[in-house]
Every structure is written in structure tokens, then in C-alpha cells.
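Handover notes (outgoing to incoming on-call)

Open items:
1. NfeD family protein: sequence verified, structure written out, both below. Nothing else pending on this one.
2. Nothing else urgent.
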Amino acid sequence: MDLTPTAWQLWMVAALVCGALEIKLSGFVMLWFALGALASSLAASLGLGINFQLFLFTAVSAVLFGASRTIFKNVFMRTASHLKTGIEAMLGQEAVVVEAIGEPHGGTVRINGELWMARSLSGGVPEGERVTVEQVEGLKLWVRRPSASLSVPVVEQKKKERG
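NfeD family protein C-alpha cells:
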């Protein structure tokens, strides 16, 4: 009885070792080598030469490794929403005016428990009023009163009273 392992058995052992390492390690790297070894094991069982087996192992592993980000993004992350953090998360949020916002120097607003220097895009804003963050420029927020609290110009108000 001949106990010499054949090529397909060696590739299968390599696939199992890479699979075990994938379970032990984090990062989805060894998985692609395991699949490449499985493909080479199949090629060896079909009687293809060692050069083709090595080429197939390299090609399958490299293609899967290169495409892994796209594969995981399309399969596992298709329903995930983009998580906004930092400055990006502040845009569109409401802040409370802590120090009245005047024209020349601005004022201070509280957002997410932090105090920020602010400038108004819609004129002066008194203390205690809520504003919406429109833009962030360095360490200064550009804010605007919500549309519901915008004052109606005197000209439009007189037209409504007449007609």
C-alpha cells in the first residue's frame, strides 16, 4: 500500500490549514488562499500539471483578494447606511444659542453638549433660540434660524392686510 500523498491531497491539506488560520486570525485574508488551494486541488484531481495548479492558486487567490472589498460591500453591507461622524454629523442639526449672535463677531451655540463659536446666515439671533447648523468653517459654525421662525417682511404683511 502506497501512502505517498497525491497533489490534490496536498492542496486539500493546504486549504484546510488556510481555513483553520482564517478562523484563528482576523481579517479575511487566509480565506482567499484557502479557496485558491481548493481550486488547485480540483485541478490536480483532474490531472492538470503543477505549473497550471500553481498558476490557478495564484490567480484565484489574487482575484478574490482584490475583489473582497467589493464582494463584502455588495453582499453584507448593501442595507447599511453611512454613519456620519464629527463635523459631517453636525450639518443640519439644531443648536441652542447660548450667547446672542450679533453681526460683527457672532456668538456661541451649544450642540451635542459642546460650545461652538457661531455666525448667523439670517441676521442676529437672541439667546435661547434654536438654530440649524448649515456649514462648518474651521472652528466656527454658520447657523440659520429654522424656516418656521423666520420673520415675515413688512411689505408682504401689508399686502396680505390689503388683499
